[in-house]
Structure formats: C-alpha cells, structure tokens
C-alpha cells in the first residue's frame, strides 16, 4: 500500500484516485473548490457506468496538510502548475516522490530543481472526461508511462509495479524526456487543429488538406524537439486519431467552453525552443496565434 | 444609354442591374436558373428597404441571345468563369466590351486572349448580400474601380462616365493590374481568416494574435504580388475591417452554407505565383489547406 496524494480534481485526477483506490492504495485527493471537496466527501469518486463508489480522502488545496506522502501525483494542467510547485518548494506539500503528468515540457526545469526528491514524469494515454465533481467518464482505456527525471531508477521500478493494475496499467519507461517529447509532438499536431477546425480527432484524417497541415506541424515539432523516429511517430499520431476518432480534444473543449487552453505549454513551448535553436516554425506559429486569438474572443471573465 | 448585359444573378449582378437600370441604361441580366429568371421577370429587381422595383430584361444563360451588347459585365465568381469565357469564345455572348469584376487574377490570362475586344477589369468595393432571387441588400456603399486590360483608354474613360451615378459611382483607374492585385491582397488577408475563425470582419482587429496572423498573410501576398505600398495597403485593410465590421466575409458565408469558396482564386493564386517565383508562403498555405479541408467537410452534394 502506497500513501498517495493526488493534486487536482479534474478528469485525470479523478481517474487516478478511482483506480489507485481500487488497487488498495491509500489515496487523498487535493482539490481547489470547497463544493468539489464536499461532493467527494459525501459520495466518493465513481466512474460512469459503474455503481461502485471509491471512498477517497479529500482535502482542499489551501488546507494545512500535516502528513507526508509516499507519492504525490500532480495532475493539474500546466497552466495551474506554478502554485503547486510553490507549495512543494515551501514544504506545504511533502512527499518522498513526485509524479508529474502534465502535457508539455515547460515545467521540467523548475521541478528538476526540487531538493532531495525523487521526480518522475508520466504520460497519460487514457481518454477521460469529467462528468461532475465526483464522477469521471473513462472514454478510452490506455496506460500511464512513467519515467525518471531525478532519483533512483530501481525505486521507480518498484513503485510502478505497486501502482499498476489490470484496468489501470502503469509502465516504466526508460527515457523520460523522450516520452514527454513524443506526447508533446502528438498534442502539438492534434490539439490545436481540432480546436481551430472545431472537429473531432478522427476528422483530422478526413481529407488530404487536413493531413497536409498535420504533416507540416509534425515536421516542425520533430525538428525542434530533435526526435528522429519519424515513421513510427507519424504512425502513432494517425493511430491515436483513429482510436479516439469521436473524441473532442481537450483544447477543442477548452476553447468551446471558454476555458484557458494549454496552447502555451504545447505550441508555445515549441516556438520558444525553435527561437533558441533558430528554427523557423511558421505552421506552429499560425496555430499558436490563432488559438490565442480565438481564446481572447471566447474566454469567460 | 448603354446596352448592357450582366452575366450572373448573385448579389453583385443584382446590384449592377438595379443601379444601371436606375441610371437609364438598357439592362439584360443573364442568370443560370429558370426560377430566378421567372422571379425577375415577374417582380423586377429591388433593393431591400426600397419599394421601387427595376424592370430588367432577363435571360437564361443557355438561351440563344441574338443581340450584341455595348458592354457585358461578368459578375460570376471565378469558380464559374470558365463557362462564361467559353461562351464568349464561341460567340454566344457578343459585345464590344467586357468588364470582369471577379476576385483573384487567375482568369486574366484567358480573357486577355479575346480577339478584337475591349477588356476591362473592375474591383467592386460595395458590400452586398443576396436576399432572394430578385432582391439584394446593399450592406455597404462603395465604388467600382475599372481599369483597362486591353483596348482603348479613351473609350473606357467615356464608358465610365456613362455608367457612373451618385449612388453607384464608377471610377476610371489608371493601373488595372494594380487595383486587382490590391483587392487580391485584401481578400487574401480578410476572407480566409474570417472563414477559419468564423468571425465577422471587424473581429479580426480584436486582438494582437489575429493581427499577427493577418500581418504574416499580408507580407506574403505583398511580396509575391510585388506590391510596394505597404503602409497604405495595411491601412486600407484595417479600414475595410472597420467599415465592414459587422459583415460576414463571402468566404465565411460560403463555408458556412456549404458552397464552394473562392480560396483557389485568392490564396491558391498566391501559392501558384509564389511557387513560380520560388517564394515561401507558409501562412498562405496554412489557410489554403485549412479552407479546402473544412470545405470538404461542410460542402453540400
């Protein structure tokens, strides 16, 4: 049994909390809103289509948390990570090990600097959609790939074995940076385009014109991130479009409901890296400016 | 009195027919559909908000037309111009002079080859929206600039004076290619972006991100078309966005209702020119492929 705190009550946070509780770990979920805290306290966390509700300890993110965890899983979006990193640096969130599962790579520099901690980064391949404050729809079963950013490799391998279960497989990945880079490429191609065109993931493969734009974004990301497995990666991207064909990407949803998107962490990161390396990325720049502009029109408040 | 035939029963065709009839010219409008022919025959052509209906002769485009006109104004979109050019070449449409008012420049090569004809090209600055088969909403009063592609300069100047009226000013423009090039730049910036973002013309100036993309498209078009009056042209584009702020661009409307857009004549032309001149136009390529792709999803039939 691992004592786990999960920071973030979004779809991924609820998914982790549900499955890790099922696997008999002691799970505390840390959420931002009082209403969500109350809801989870009363009804536990459940998956749609399943009657079973998982009893999970729940805390508000500005509560004083006295205990130290074996593992803290940070599931908030990269747009909200600054505050979590601050709380870790201040010792308000204490654990032996941290697992970060954000899209993008912009946070890696700051989390690498944590003193005396084991830092893991993960790539979540699940599809998940939050239905309510305590219920999540598991739209696509995948796996969680976890790699070592800092710390002891063997310890991580042991942890991964403890966390994994049949319906929620957790894999050890040898090259942590490679897995987040690859996820970044996938996100840089699928997310901004589905948001811009207001289409579902599968529709990207609908015609040669969309595919032409995808390939341009793909090429730019691969060059900037210095990845070489072009054929495999392109195959992976089209596979994901097919396997999540009827899903709306998170960026498409965020843009539609007027929430802040992850465009900074995804295309913004590629543009900043490209600038440093003096590489031209016009297609990535196009989607970046377009999503920023459309957000400015649709964002609430 | 000039004997004028107007080819095309769209918004611009109806607008020309209405105002030129008001200015006491003898106008025949040539439309494609029988229903539109009947409608105009019965009720004439009118502007929204005005009771007066202009009696205009109307013919179907596959009728045999025995008479020769002083002037034929071709108002069909560039996507439909092939057939008109064919009918002119076959002598089915006969006139001393032709005025073409298409967006884009792709048709200039073929119309320049007409034998023994005066060929004029025009840029329409009016805003117009077809309400029904015989009614048009004049959404923005502008002017029609006409320049000489082939023929006698003085003859054109005389014609322009005959056509012009207070509410429908027609101007002589010294450099025909320059005015269509400038219109092309304006269309290449405003039309694809408003269609892609599904916004009104005025919203393009809503934030720095949209403006950044506009400027990139603007730069590419200016370089490819070899235009130098950068400051004036940019000022003109922003002026048009403001003066037509609440209008949907024709491309945005075409895309929404599932009609073929003019993307080939606008961005497609720039891309083909750029290729010949070995100039890179990634932003124009992005909007071109995007509009083509979105059309393939929304097009009817």
Automatic annotation (TrEMBL), chains A, B:
| Pathway participation | Cofactor biosynthesis; (R)-pantothenate biosynthesis; (R)-pantoate from 3-methyl-2-oxobutanoate: step 2/2
Q: Would you name any one GO CC term?
A: cytoplasm
Q: Do you know which InterPro entries this protein is assigned to?
A: 6-PGluconate_DH-like_C_sf (IPR008927), 6PGD_dom2 (IPR013328), ApbA (IPR003710), Ketopantoate_reductase (IPR050838), KPA_reductase (IPR013752), KPR_N (IPR013332), NAD(P)-bd_dom_sf (IPR036291)
Q: Which Pfam families does the entry mention?
A: ApbA, ApbA_C
In this chain the Ketopantoate reductase N-terminal domain maps to 4-150
Q: Which GO terms describe its biological process?
A: pantothenate biosynthetic process
- Which range is the signal sequence, renumbered to this chain? none
Return the similarity comment: Belongs to the ketopantoate reductase family.
Its protein name is 2-dehydropantoate 2-reductase
What organism is the protein native to? Lottiidibacillus patelloidae
């Amino acid at each position: 049994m691992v004592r786990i705190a999960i920071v973030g009550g979004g779809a991924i946070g609820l998914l982790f909390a549900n499955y890790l509780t099922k696997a008999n770990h002691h799970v505390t979920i840390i959420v931002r809103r009082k209403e969500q805290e109350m809801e989870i306290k009363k009804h536990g966390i459940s998956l749609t289509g399943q009657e079973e509700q998982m009893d999970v300890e729940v805390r508000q993110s500005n509560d004083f948390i006295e205990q130290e965890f074996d593992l803290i899983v940070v599931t908030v979006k990269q747009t909200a990570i600054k505050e979590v990193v601050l709380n870790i640096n201040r010792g308000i969130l204490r654990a032996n090990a941290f697992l970060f599962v954000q899209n993008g790579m912009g946070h890696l520099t700051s989390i690498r600097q944590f003193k005396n901690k084991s830092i893991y980064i993960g790539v979540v391949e699940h599809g998940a959609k939050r239905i309510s404050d305590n219920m999540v729809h598991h739209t696509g079963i995948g796996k969680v790939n976890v790699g070592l950013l800092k710390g002891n490799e063997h310890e991580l391998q042991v942890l991964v074995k403890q966390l994994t279960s049949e319906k929620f497989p957790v894999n050890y990945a040898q090259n942590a940076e490679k897995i987040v880079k690859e996820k970044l490429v996938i996100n840089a191609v699928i997310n901004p385009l589905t948001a811009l065109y207001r289409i579902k993931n599968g529709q990207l493969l609908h015609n040669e014109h969309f595919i032409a734009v995808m390939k341009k974004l793909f090429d730019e990301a691969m060059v900037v991130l210095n990845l070489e497995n072009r054929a495999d990666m392109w195959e992976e991207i089209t596979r994901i479009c097919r396997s999540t064909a009827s899903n709306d990407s998170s960026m498409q949803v965020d843009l539609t409901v007027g929430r802040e998107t992850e465009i900074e962490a995804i295309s913004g990161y590629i543009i900043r890296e490209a600038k440093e390396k003096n590489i031209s990325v016009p297609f990535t720049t196009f989607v970046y400016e377009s999503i920023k502009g459309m957000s400015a029109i649709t964002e609430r408040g």
